[in-house]
Amino acid sequence: TQAEAVAAAIVDVAGRAKKPILSCFMGTHGVPESLRSLHTGHVPSFRFPEGAARALSLVSSYARWRQAPPARLLEAGPTPAAASQALGAARRRLGPPGGWLSAEEAEAFCRAWGLTLPAARLVAPTAAAVEDAAAALGYPVVLKAQREGLLHKSHEGGVAVGLAGPVALREAAARMAALAPEAFLVQKQIVGGEEWLAGVIRDRDYGPLVTAGAGGTRTEIWHDVEQRLAPLTQVDLDALLDRPRFARTLAGTAGGKPGDRAALAAFVRQLSFAALAHPEVEEMEANPLLVLPAGEGAVAVDVRLRIGAR
Fold first, then answer.
1. 188 forms bridges with which residues in the sheet?
2. Mean pLDDT in the chain?
3. Cβ neighbours of residue 267 under 8 Å, at least 6 residues apart?
4. Could you please report the per-residue DSSP string of 14-64?
5. Chain segment 187-237, per-residue pLDDT in tens
6. pTM check: above 0.85
7. Separation of alpha carbons 153 and 145, rounded Å
8. Is the pLDDT confidence value at 67 over 60?
9. Residues of 9-34 as b/e, b for ≥16 C-beta within 10 angstroms?
10. Lowest mean pLDDT among 27-41, 61-75, 198-212, 284-298
11. Are 118 and 301 in contact (CB under 8 A)?
12. Burial class (CB in 10 A: 0-12, 13-18, 19+), 50
């Protein structure tokens, strides 16, 4: 066939057509000079049919998005004074460059925003101190080593879970002594629940990007998350909770109880509000975020929070 004649016929029909027309002239260097009439007639041409199909799919998705009714932004309440105070204390400690908040500072910030954390005590790195804290909280407990720069505690041996008594607690503290901890965090063990991730990272151009999906050890293996820019609408919030494949756990799996979707939604919503209210928060992540059975809540057993330069 004569490619030029075919292209001219396509352009002629495209000018009268009521449907989108895409063309495919297979070649190694895009549309040859002899087929420039396609550009003149505003007929996109692709090297392979698969590219045309993908492009048309994206156009279709964009059209559906444009036709959807406008969604209303979720309304945030006033910024808690305690949250601003927690960030102020962190800034005084870290100075103008900013950095990662301590466990105590991050806990104060989260609790101010209504983000649920386990009962915990931050104590000196001694066996006696951790035993007293565990006795007050009640076994089983989780022990975490605390030191500036020790961010991925579980990877470095700085976390011990399911400690059911003083002997196991002392042994865990002794093992972690090699990490030179500045303190120990003793947490009440939360039993059950599905491990989610909820986080936010501030993009320089677009602002807070909220993430939700599979948490715990699944995060790095599955990469099963959904992301939306804040401020969120209810449509955005539903997508964050429903789009990840891991979202099936909220409906109950293998005969298990449904997860507390309302509590998870409230946690992600408050997380987005916190990021919007405090521009200095560059990164914040709750992982794992344990989503308990319906009506029992969602608890962040580990939170990291970083503020940027002044």
1. 141
2. 91
3. 115, 116, 198, 286, 289, 298, 300
4. HTT-SS---EE---SSSS-GGGTHHHHTT--EESSHHHHHHHHHHHHHHHH
5. 999 988 999 999 999 999 999 999 999 998 888 888 999 999 999 999 999
6. no
7. 7
8. yes
9. ebbeebeeeeeeebbebeeeeebeee
10. 27-41
11. yes
12. exposed
Q: Which of 55, 3, 53, 54 is nearest to 25 (CA)?
A: 3
Average pLDDT over residues 290-302: 95
Residue 113 half-sphere exposure toward CB, CA atoms < 13 A: 27
Q: Among 153, 77, 110, 108, which Cα is nearest to 285's?
A: 110
Closest by Cα among 7, 48, 3, 4 to 26? 48
Picking from 258, 206, 248, 204, the residue whose alpha carbon sits closest to that of residue 227 is: 206
> What proportion of the chain, given as a percentage, has pLDDT over 90?
73
Please report, for residues 181, 216, 284, 292, the alpha-carbon distance to residue 222 in angstroms, rounded to integers and kept in the order given: 31, 10, 20, 21
CB-side neighbour CA atoms (13 Å) of 264: 33
Other beta carbons within 10 Å of 64: 9
Residue 58: CB atoms within 10 A of its CB come to 10
CA distance 193 to 291: 5
Distance in angstroms (rounded) separating the CA atoms of residues 198 and 212:
5
Both tokens of 40, joined, read 């003149």
In the DSSP assignment, the letter for residue 155 is: G
Assigned token pair, 100: 């990662």
* Residue owning tokens 């449907």: 19
Give the amino acid at 108: A
What pLDDT sits at residue 34? 66
